[in-house]
Amino acid sequence: MSSEIIPPAGDQSPGPDEAFLHHCLYFTTNRLSRAISRIADDAFATTGLAPAYGYLIRLVIGKPGITQKELAEKLYITPSTLTRFIDKLEGKRLVERQVQGKTVLVYPTDKAFELEQPLRQASKKLKETYEAILGKEAAALLTASVEDAGKQLE
Predict the structure, then answer these.
(1) Alpha carbon of 28 to those of 37, 97, 146: distances in Å?
(2) Which of 77, 128, 142, 144 could serve as 81's disulfide partner, Cβ 3.0–4.6 Å?
(3) Which residues, other chains included, contact 127 with Cβ-Cβ below 8 Å and sequence gap of 6+?
(4) What is the pLDDT of residues 52-71, one digit of tens each?
(5) Are 109 and 96 a contacting pair, CB within 8 Å?
(6) Sheet harboring 66-67: ordered strands across?
(7) What is the spatial distance between Cα 126 and Cα 41, in angstroms, rounded to a whole number?
(8) Contacts for 16-25: CB closer than 8 Å, 24+ residues apart
(9) Cα 45 to Cα 34: distance, rounded to the nearest angstrom
(10) Whose CA is closest to 146, among 23, 22, 25, 21?
């Protein structure tokens, strides 16, 4: 006879075949990513842009003429993904590219500058929402821990 304890039928604790998921960094960070993405999508809905596009525009506004390479590094995305993002934002007339030799510089348009405050408000709403759920201190600690872990794992 096994010494394994079988939980009552209504118990929602993980069974032995799935318990590993709750101790797996890959699974738990993906779960966190999906949850924060839903909150971010909601916060940025009023801007008409996905959060990644909003942060890209904020970086371009903060440093007009920023290189595509620098943007990709700051956003932790591949150059090809960044190119697709910029293509889309150019189509919406929010950014312009200028080629200087082998370097591509990205500039905000007047339309982008009009979005600066709504984008800042969306970022603020996002932070306020997750801080309300997690608590300010826990949110700051989690952010710092995830940032540090990301650096170490790269």
Answers:
(1) 14, 38, 12
(2) 77
(3) 139
(4) 999 999 999 999 999 999 99
(5) yes
(6) 66-67, 103-108, 95-100
(7) 9
(8) 25/149
(9) 16
(10) 25
pLDDT value at 7 more than 60: no
Residue holding tokens 């603020």? 124
Predicted TM-score of the model (pTM): 0.83
CA distances from 40 to 18, 30, 34, 76 (A): 29, 15, 10, 17
Which tokens sit at 85?
């993002």
Q: Is the pLDDT of residue 130 over 80?
A: yes
C-beta atoms surrounding 50 within 10 Å: 16
pLDDT value, residue 3: 47
Q: What is the pLDDT of residue 22?
A: 87
Structure tokens, 9:
């039928």
Q: Give whole-number Cα distances, 53 to 68, 82, 102, 113, 122, in Å.
A: 14, 10, 24, 14, 12
